[in-house]
User: Fold this.
Amino acid sequence: MQNRPTRSALYIPGSRARAIEKARGLPVDVILFDLEDAVAPDEKAAARETIVAELAAGGFGVRYRVVRINALDTEWGADDAAALEAADFDAVLLPKVGSAADVDALAALLPDRKIWAMIETPQGVLNALEIAGYPALEGFVIGTNDLAKELNSRGRAAMTTALQMSLLAARMHGVVAIDGVYNAFKDEDGLRAECEEGRHFGFDGKSLIHPAQVEIANNVFGPTTADVDLAQRQIDAFKGAVAAGQGVAVVDGKIVENLHLETARATLAKAEAIAMLEAS
Assistant:
């Protein structure tokens, strides 16, 4: 997953077959097929069947397919996992993860499957490092709505510490880190500002609740033309410096060392991966 684009991760209610069909044509990097919050209790079983059928039908191209099940301590969680045992998807997203033991419980039901964890409780944040280190764990999705409720906080600034602790844990173990949703889906300026903040923090992408949010998330979390140009110039300059027997280069008046070269190469790799995704 290191260079795979995860700029946009769109929740699609499992009870809405038409929305799933539409998702097949959206320029989204990750589809989060949802069996939890977006599905009413009396629709859980039907939604489960719909998602399994739609996954079997295919047509999602190279979009990464993640299914969010219900928590295992609910009446639906174990049945969700059982239904997915033979399904065709990329990873399963477990809500309300508080410790590595929660991930282990899911891994016992779905062995050899990649697992993503919702970090949305104080316990989950405080145990983020051990959760991220679980062998099957591939990604974090921050559940900012639930986290705000649990913290009894108002505003995103109150969650800064939790966001950064989760991100630090993800980076320690090399797992994907997806920022929480922005609820006001018609507020493009607000979404862009929150995406910019998440990008500055270091998140890989944004979880989304509406298709109209995809373009902004893709633009903010993807490398710009200027980013790609700078990365290539840094690489070229560093190669020239090494050839001249020097250990550093200078680009746009700034020192370029080997650590900058790693970032530049990652930028080019992500840009190439995005281009391949968009061409598919």
Q: What stands out?
A: The chain is about 50% helix and 15% strand.
